[in-house]
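1st attempt posting a full record on here, be nice pls
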Amino acid sequence: MISLSPLKTLQNKEFRNLLTGRFFIVLAFRMLATLLGWWVYQLTKDPFSIGLIGLSEVIPAVSCALYAGHVIDTNEKKRLLLICNYAYVFLIGLLLIPAFYNIELHFSGHQITYFIYAVIFFTGIARAFIGPIVPSMIPKIVDKINLPSAITLNQATFLTSSVCGHAIGGFLIGFFGVKYTLLVIISLIVIASIFFWQLNEQHSQNKKENMKIMESMKEGVDYILKTKEILGALCLDMFAVLFGGAVALIPVFATDILKSGAEGFGLLNAASDIGSMIIIATLAMVPLRKNQGKILLVAVAGFGLCIIGFGLSQYYWLSFFFLVLSGMLDGISVVIRGTIVQLKTPDHIRGRVLSVNSIFIMSSNEMGQFESGLMAKMLGVVRSVVIGGSITVLIALLVGSNNKKLRNMQY
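the predicted structure (as C-alpha cells):
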C-alpha cells in the first residue's frame, strides 16, 4: 500500500538527517567521479584509461560485497556508516599528493594514473560496505506504509546530489582546477558525517554466534535467486547499464566530438541525472499506482534507444536532450526496482540482499565504465555506444518475455 501523502515521510527528523547526510556524501562521490574521469583523460588522452577507473573500484567492491552484507546484518549500522565515511576522507585525501605537488614533473601521466587507480581500489572496499548501509537503515526509520515514498525520496535525494555533483564538479574543475575541487569533495564528506552522527543506533536482530559467514552469505544469494521479481529487476539494471553506459565516455564526446570544453562537459555529464531528478520528483508527488512491472520493461527499452540517439548525435544540445530523456526513463526504472527489492525483502536478511543488489549495481556501473572504455578502444567511441544501446533494448525484450512475475508485478 502506498502512503496517501508521499512527502509525509519528511516529517520524520531521523529520516531527514539520513537523507541530508546521503545528499552530501553522494554529492562528493559524483564530484569525485567527474573529476577522476576528466583528470585521467587529461593525463593520458586514452579513453581506455577512463574504463580502468571503474575496473579499479569494482573488483574490490564486488569481491567484498557478500561479506559486507553479512557484517551489516550482524553489526550496529550507524557505527559502520561512520567508519566508511571517514575511510573515504582518508583515501581521497591521498589524491591531494599528486594534485598539489606537481609530481608530473617527475612522472609521466600514465604513472600518475597508477597511483590514482590504487587509491580507487581501496575506496572500492569501503564502497562495498557503505552502499547497502543507507537503504538497509530506511525500513527501521519509517513506517512500512511510507516505505515506497521513502524509497522514492531517497532516490530523489541521490539523483539531486548526482546532478549537482556532476555539474558543480565540472565547473569547479574548469575554474579552480583539480586540487581545490578535491578539497571541496573532502569537506563535503566531513559535513555528511555530522548528519550521520545524529542517527539512532540500529542494532542487529541476528546473533553473530548463530551465523556462520559462508552460510550467511549464501542465504542472501539464495533468497534473490528464488524471488523472480527481484532477480529480474536486478538483471535488467545490471545488463542495461553495463551495455548502455555511455556516460563513462562523456569526457571523450565533450573533448573530441562535441568540442564543448570543461564547462560543457560538466552540464553534459549531469544531463541524465537532471532527467532522473525531474521524473523522480514527479513520482514523489504522483506515485505509480499499477502495472509497475510493464512500465519498468518499457523504461529500460526506451533508455537503450536514447543511448543509440546520443551515440549518433553530432550536436551538443541534441546529445544533451537524449541524455536527459535517458535519465527520465532510468529514473522510472530506479524507483520501481528499488521499491521491489525493499518490499520483497525481510528485515533479518536485508543487508545481505542489498549487498547482492550492490553487486549488480556496481557490476553495471563500474564494469559498464570498463566495458565502454574497452569497446571504444576496439570499435571506436560512436560505434561502441550505438552497439551498447542496441544490446540494452534486446535485454529488455528478453527479460520481459521470460519473466512473467516481473512483467505482471504490481505493488
